[in-house]
Design goal:
By secondary structure, this protein is mostly helical. It has one domain. The chain contains 14 helices and 2 strands. A two-stranded parallel sheet has the order 1-2. The radius of gyration is 21 Å and the shape is globular. Pfam families: FA_desaturase. It comes from Streptomyces rectiviolaceus.
Length: about 350
């Protein structure tokens, strides 16, 4: 975790790397077409079918088998909508199709935080300033200390507890994070803009809560209570899964962090290098990658955030070969290992540790 990033030690480490990665990007853009469109439409159809089936089963969920089947189908539907659809559509990965139904400017996902707020904090801030201390708010989500370059405060002693609580409530944590309350406290954001965004969140959260915890349970009649519990369980499963995938892709121990000095005069090639060093992949089969929104290929996603997610598995071997060619660490491993490593990072930086030498 304290290894000095390559981008800080070499004047132009990524020039050739950047040119080769740009070539991969251009090839994928030129090859996008009917197969990609069929893929995303098949995912949408599958997700909607699972949600409809889950809702129907939960409507008669006084019968335990119906409750189990409905909750399972709705859980998978919510995971697909959040990971492979919402996250990737809002990145503009499918804007090239010209279909307004799945365009980044029109999609609103099944998540508490409004799409526009998330696109600002995630697409703009995180993907531009990946793992740069004091620039990337995703580095610790304001409450966690994840780098030796972050100052330690006594509150960090409790960050293992924060993470334990955050996992099942992840959508609430993200919604609060997207409001940027700390920016208001520091004076870098006006109260007016905060109140405007807070009102937008309140409207979105009200719709979500009414849908899952009032409308569908009421429609279920005698099955209202088990239907409500099934919806609550599905949302919790989705939160646990998305939290796990995101933390495993960003916080394993070998993922690097950077200071603002590291990115002074950063070139396109060095930006690519930072994205690779600041991300980690998770190994798994095809179904795992679909359910993770193809974020098991987090390195490829950070290098090419707006390429269709179904293309990441195709280009991952080429990106890894380039990393081997230029002697750049390519952090990858099975889910259990990355999850354990991320927890190790949380525990390590919960206690005071020497800051990295300048």
């Amino acid at each position: 975790m304290d290894v000095t990033p390559l981008a800080a030690t070499e004047a132009e480490p990524g020039k050739e790397l950047g040119e080769e990665l740009d070539r991969i990007r251009s090839e994928v853009i030129a090859a996008r077409g009917a197969d990609d469109a069929r893929y995303i439409r098949a995912v949408i159809a599958t997700q909607r079918g699972l949600e409809a089936g889950g809702r129907a089963a939960l409507a008669v969920s006084l019968f335990p088998p119906a409750w189990a089947a409905g909750t399972a189908m709705l859980s998978v539907a919510k995971i697909l909508e959040n990971m492979e659809l919402g996250h990737n559509i809002l990145h503009g990965q499918w804007d090239w199709m010209g279909d307004q139904a799945i365009h980044s400017s029109t999609w609103e996902w099944d998540f508490l935080t409004p799409a526009e707020a998330w696109k600002h904090t995630h697409n703009h801030l995180h993907h531009t300033w990946t793992n740069v201390v004091d620039r990337d708010r995703d580095l610790g989500y304001v409450v966690f200390r994840m780098s030796a370059d972050q100052s330690w405060h006594p509150r960090h002693l409790a960050q293992p507890l924060y993470n334990f609580v955050l996992a099942p409530l992840f959508e609430w944590g993200i919604a609060l994070y997207d409001l940027e309350p700390e920016a208001v406290a520091s004076g870098s954001r006006s109260w007016r803009s905060f109140v405007t965004d807070l009102a937008g969140f309140a409207r979105k959260a009200t719709r979500q809560l009414v849908k899952d915890y009032a409308l569908f349970p009421l429609l279920a009649g005698p099955s209202a209570l088990p239907c409500l519990m099934g919806n609550l369980t599905a949302n919790t499963v989705r939160n646990l899964w998305s939290h796990t995938i995101i933390f495993c892709g960003h916080f394993p121990g070998d993922v690097q962090t950077f200071t603002e000095e590291h990115i002074e005069g950063e070139t396109r090639g060095q930006w690519y290098l930072r994205q690779i060093q600041g991300s980690a992949n998770i190994e798994g089969g095809r179904l795992f990658h679909v359910l993770s929104g193809n974020l098991g290929h987090q390195i490829e996603h950070h290098a090419f955030p707006d390429l269709p997610s179904n293309r990441y598995a195709e280009i991952a071997p080429r990106v890894r070969e380039l990393c081997e060619k230029y002697d750049i660490p390519y952090v990858t491993g099975p889910l259990w290992r990355q999850y354990g490593s991320a927890w190790g990072r949380i525990l390590r930086f919960a206690v005071p540790a020497p800051r990295r030498p300048a």
